[in-house]
Design a protein that fits this description.
Chain lengths: ~300, ~300
């Protein structure tokens, strides 16, 4: 069984490749839930929904968010009546989020709800929220501890970052067991600070990874993060914005770091940081490349 | 200024007539809010929305609920994923309800939200929720006090009803003043037990009505309530299900009770109960009849 740690961008592309080369039952996705929250009255677990829609072949690949072909009638009418949504939610996508909201209010855990929803979508792979308890990211700065969104939007990432702290939340019931039962754990190419580290910081996860064959795929090619504010945070925390920085972040966990062909000059340096380095095309611009990368990763253990 | 006490069915039809014969600014609607509640994560103030959509010429006249021409994409997808909504909400209608939900969570009162929404829809008439505090109806029965929906659905209206009790909620800020400033108050042909009495039972309303010219339009023609469980409740509370019963219920408030031509034989009896009786066509099956009824009512004071 292959276990993937995933955020909402980057890793889902790799999941598209993995699902073509593995039996669905042999794939388990552990998903970041940090910063899950209510918007427009509905519970939004953004990364989980992206993973779920990806596995159900429903993902909108233009935005890597929401359902392909979805309409935005409610969202548009909210704008028309002068109440634009902070988060643009499609009509079908909203139904998924309403179900989560209703079931949460009825006392179901997020894990139970995701299980119900993925079964309804005929997804055979496991989707495991990292925790059933909501959590957030606090940014410790020279002007004090800030909420993630406060730092990002209100403060425009300007204060000096001293540390990034994740809430201490318990693992969901299946989290540790799923890692323990895996033949390989993949740290997907998602934002290391906002998606992967929140999972790794859950109690028991680092310990569970110790005896596992762990492959990380770099979310950075050259000196460019594929998306989001990863760079700013890495920089602030003293990591170089490059596969070297990624190696430093993940060095205690990984057996392999997979980097892009463009970064092959870094291999010698990286070998001083991580046990092994894999070099291939990690710019997943087509399904073929996604499948090739999936095969490349799975072959690392053979 | 004409003030109308309204529920979500019956009275909105009369409002369609009144808005054709009055300047919009001269019309104020005080709306029942009892049993307002959250469904599918959104705040549903059913009667207020029907009145608002009626005044904006947006009401779905087939169901007297929701927006005409609305789509049900979210609602349908919820059903598709195995989570049907207890209340069928259209996509545009949902936007209205989401705005209320968001603004309530931000600390706006229901009155303030309705004011914002009606202004956005270019409604010049006033729409005044009876209260900004949520309330419910309790049914005192031989087997104990029951929630309204529990009595209605779970218990199938079977227990013997001893009393109907409305929560004690304060009037919204503009409620009493609006009545006091009115030249005429109309108790619309809505369910007397679930729509009109909840408004009348708010502290100060009965007193404010004392010096007003009050016209009630019977929600019952013959022995048939126009809609809903009004009959059962009236019966249980000892009122005849007829314009006579309506006269008994409203006798302390009204100057005129308007009944249908079909019930003209009841006029002599009714004159022993209420001060005056108006007889006309109150079956509002066309806009012309609605306008004629509106004119008939407005002429009662001349």
């Amino acid at each position: 069984m292959i276990c993937v740690l995933s955020g909402g961008t980057g890793t889902p592309k790799l999941i598209q490749g993995l699902k073509e080369v593995l039996d669905s039952e042999d794939l388990s996705i552990i998903v970041n839930t940090v910063e899950n929250n209510y918007f427009s009255g509905v519970y939004v677990s953004g990364d989980i929904d992206v993973v779920m829609y990806t596995l159900a072949d429903m993902i909108n690949e233009e935005f890597w968010y929401g359902i392909k072909g979805d309409t935005f009638i409610t969202n548009n009418f909210l704008e028309e009546i002068g109440c634009p949504e902070p988060l643009k939610i499609g009509d079908r996508d909203r139904a998924t989020k309403i179900e989560k909201t209703i079931r949460l209010s009825e006392g179901y855990t997020l894990s139970e709800i995701v299980e119900i929803q993925k079964n309804n979508l005929n997804i055979k792979s496991k989707i495991i929220p990292m925790s059933d308890v909501d959590s957030d990211i606090k940014i410790v700065t020279d002007i004090g501890e800030l909420d993630f969104h406060d730092f990002l939007i209100d403060k425009q990432c300007e204060p000096e970052v001293l540390d990034v702290v994740y809430s201490n939340v318990p693992p969901s019931n299946q989290l540790i067991q799923t890692i323990e039962e895996s033949d390989m754990v993949i740290l997907g190419p998602s934002n290391p600070i906002t998606s992967i580290m929140p999972i790794l910081s859950i109690e028991g996860v680092k310990e569970a990874l110790k005896n596992k064959f762990v492959v990380a795929v770099s979310p950075i090619v050259g000196t460019e993060p594929v998306s989001g504010p990863a760079g700013k945070f890495m920089n602030a925390l003293g990591y170089e914005i490059s596969p070297i920085g990624i190696g430093e972040m993940y060095k205690d966990f990984v057996d392999y770091l997979v980097i892009d062909n463009q970064d092959k000059d870094l291999v010698d340096n990286l070998k001083n940081i991580v046990p092994n380095v894999g070099v291939t095309n990690i710019m997943m611009k087509s399904l073929d490349i996604k499948i090739d990368l999936a095969k490349f990763i799975l072959d690392l253990k053979k």
